[in-house]
From TrEMBL:
GO molecular function: ATP binding; DNA binding; isomerase activity
Similarity field: Belongs to the helicase family. RecQ subfamily.
Signal peptide start and end residues: none
Keyword Metal-binding: no
Domain of life, source organism: Eukaryota
Keyword check for Transferase: no
UniProt keyword list: DNA-binding, Isomerase, Nucleus
Pfam families, alphabetized: DEAD
PANTHER family attached to this UniProt entry: DNA HELICASE RECQ FAMILY MEMBER, RECQ-LIKE DNA HELICASE BLM
Protein name per the record: Helicase ATP-binding domain-containing protein
Cited InterPro entries: DEAD/DEAH_box_helicase_dom (IPR011545), Helicase_ATP-bd (IPR014001), P-loop_NTPase (IPR027417)
Organism: Paramecium tetraurelia
Amino acid sequence: MKYGDFQRLISEEDELVQISKAQLEQLILKNQQSEVLPTQKQSSKKIVIKQASKKQKHYQFADVHYWTITQFDWDKKVLDALKGAFGKEQFKANQKAIINCVLAGEDVFVCMPTGYGKSITFQIPAFVENGVSIIVMPLISLIFDQVQYLTSLGIPTLNMSGQNRLLTAQQILDQRIKLIYTTPEKIEMI
């Protein structure tokens, strides 16, 4: 995460539903009071949007086809992580496009229902990139499940949501932690 930037948001709430492009445009207009600039018509209701400019309040829909089929320098690392670390043979719908947007440094908002594979879209970039990723989730039980799953895969992960003591930056680096999971209340302490 880059502090001061529009943050990458991937929601993990259980009650998420698919929304249409028109509904999203209406939400953005209402809440952000900005223009929505669609770059193409999407056939899928699942969408990815990115911020066009940090100074402007304009958003545009990503070209999911482009982000899925384009070859990137990180493709081998991503596929190795998918198969080796996560034990999966292929991506679910839109996962590759989302991961490529994230690794390209784009600000990404993803809205997909439970079970569609949102978590892997931020876990793989964290796994293949240098540094530590901080994941903020509202439910401690969800954090516990995620940390337990990733730890079982051998991915260095830390749960900072409960009464866990805070680690220093050096301790985190020494343990080679890739993902830190926390709650909104604890984020100020990290």
